[in-house]
Amino acid sequence: MVVRRPVVVMELPEQIGANEAAEIFQDVSSLLEFQRPRIVFDLSHVRSVDNDGVQMLLHCLDEAMKRDGDLKLAAISPQSQMILELMRADGIFEIFETAGEAVRSFNVPAVAAMPEDAFLYASHADDFETLRRAS
Amino acid sequence: MFGAIIVVGERDPADFGAVRAASSTPMLGAVQLACVEVLGRSILEAMIENLRAAGVGPISVLRGWSTANVDAWYRSSRTAISGPGGVEFCCVEDLSVAVGLKLQEQKESGTEATLLMPLGPYVELDAGDLFQFHRAQRQSATPLVDADGSLDMWLVETARFASAPDVVASLSALQAGSYEVSGFVNRLDHPRQLRRLTADVLTSKCGLRPLGQEVRPGVWYGDGAHIRRGARVLAPAFIGRDSVICDDCEIADCSSIERDCEVDYASAVSDASLLPNSYVGIGLELRNSIVNGNSLLSLEHDVTLEIKDPFVMRQNKALGNEVNRPSPAEIEVPGMLFNPAEEAAN
User: Fold this and answer.
1) Do B308 and A50 touch (CB under 8 A)?
2) Of A47 and B22, the one with more pLDDT
3) Helix, strand or coil for residue B218?
């Protein structure tokens, strides 16, 4: 039986430099321990991403895909979009206008099996132990 | 035939349109786009070359000394223009008064008519045709227009406006027949126009030519441009003086890499301009954008980003020694104030 895990939405901080990237990856790591992790990074508050930030996003995506899961980006600002384009990462991610759209995109094959609001929403600083247990 | 006075700097918005011609983007501050180098030379240099070639002279460039933010770009243009042709650069306290005084000087040197123009739009004029039109109209001032309206340029009777306290105010009040410029015009009122001008030059849609050698159709290299063996430069494109394009890079789609730039390993530049002295790091992709040091302007998103990581983008070389060419001194004119700070810098 395939267990469908809830989609976890993480709200990323305003700036993603080396320190923030390490913190975020540490938080996400717990979600990536399981099979088929389904993660949405909400970038609506992000104003600045540097090279380390983009590397972290790519690393998270890589880890999620290794476990047959996926990581999608949502609500990306033009500034962040520019950085992704500059680093040639824009075509690698699925990018959505809103976190809701990104979450729903995970459920496309089985819309009826999953209520629209069946996702968790958290900032990266929130209690990730709770998220991890739920996931 | 006739003389010319080019006004550089910020004035009242009603005057000369000089403010309108200034860039409003954070990456360039209030620098006038016409001071920025396009394919090896600034528009100021290009305009002066065009005027000289058409037999226009004497030519004076007046710059308000309070316009400190145009210093670096303006200085670069000024030092690039040398040799015969009587181009005179003046730093003045009051542009309105200075225009009148300069007209008086031109009148005394026997100049019959003077072209008054702000540093802003790039215009290719048929000077002979303009002069004939002006004479035939028998008017003291002829405003220049194009299909989009006024260019804030006038051909005036030198004697009529000599020593006038505010020439621009006098001109604004005049009703006169306009001369429609039939040649190439780019108003340079947005950085997007800078890219358009670059593309137009590289595709030979105007008379301006890149400063360098056309090594194959549509590909131009400035002196000392270094394109490493594994790099690809696809026409049309321009690589400026002393710039380096590293292995596995691709420069294409009317891109211009101005002087003293470096595009590092495996980066791609497409439909983009690197302004002088910019470094672009390894493995990046620049599309539809303008880079100035560590500032990146995306024309697609209309957003400017300051890149803080020097391995991604930065100024390529230390500032201050980018201009090595001989400089004609900026001169003091009676009644005009010389900028002591700039004098000290020189």
Assistant:
1) yes
2) A47
3) coil
Q: How far apart are CA A42 and CA B282, in angstroms?
A: 28
Tell me what the mean pLDDT of segment A93-117 comes to.
73
Q: Fill in the DSSP letter of residue B177.
A: P
Cα separation, B106 vs B111, in Å, equals 5
Query: Which residues of chain B register pLDDT less than 50?
Result: 11-30, 68-70, 83-84, 321-346
- The predicted pLDDT at position B78 comes to 54
Which fold does the domain B210-315 belong to in CATH? UDP N-Acetylglucosamine Acyltransferase; domain 1 (2.160.10)
Pick from B27, B263, B298 the residue to mutate for testing the A interface (most A CBs within 10 Å): B298
Q: What is the pLDDT of residue A72?
A: 96
Is residue B6 within 8 Å of residue B42, measured between CB atoms? Answer: no
Selected for mutation to probe chain B from A85, A87, A90, A95 (highest B CB count within 10 Å) is A85
- Helical pair A51-66 and A18-31, crossing angle rounded to 10 deg: 10
The rounded radius of gyration (Å) of the Cα atoms in chain B is 20
B323 touches A at CB < 8 Å:
no
Contact assignment for A85 to B285 by CB distance below 8 Å: yes
Separation CA B88–CA B328 (nearest Å):
9
In a domain, residue A3? The reply is: no
Residues B33 and B8: their CA atoms lie apart, in Å, by: 11
Token digits for B144?
Answer: 């220049």
- Four-way CATH pick for B3-189+325-345: 3.40.50.1260, 3.50.50.60, 3.20.20.140, 3.90.550.10: 3.90.550.10
Cβ atoms of residues B49 and B4 within 8 Å: no
For residue B321, the model assigns a pLDDT of 46
**For residue A7, which of A72, A57, A54 has the smallest C-alpha distance?**
A72
Total-model pTM: 0.81
Identify residues of A whose CB sits under 8 angstroms from chain B CBs: 48, 50-51, 78-79, 81-83, 85-88
Residue recorded with tokens 């895909």: A65
Q: Which tokens in the block code for residue B166? A: 């505010």
Residues B118-163: tens digit of each pLDDT: 888 899 999 999 999 999 999 999 999 999 998 889 999 999 888 7
* pLDDT value for B165: 79
> Tokens for B120?
């802003």
Query: Cα(A74)–Cα(A72) distance, rounded to whole angstroms?
Result: 7
Question: In the prediction, which pLDDT does A16 show?
Answer: 93
If we measure between CA atoms, which residue out of B214, A61, A3, A88 comes closest to residue B201?
Answer: B214
- pLDDT of A53 above 70: yes
* B311 → chain A, closest CA residue: A51
The SS3 call for residue A21 is helix
Distance between CA atoms of residues B127 and B21, nearest Å = 23
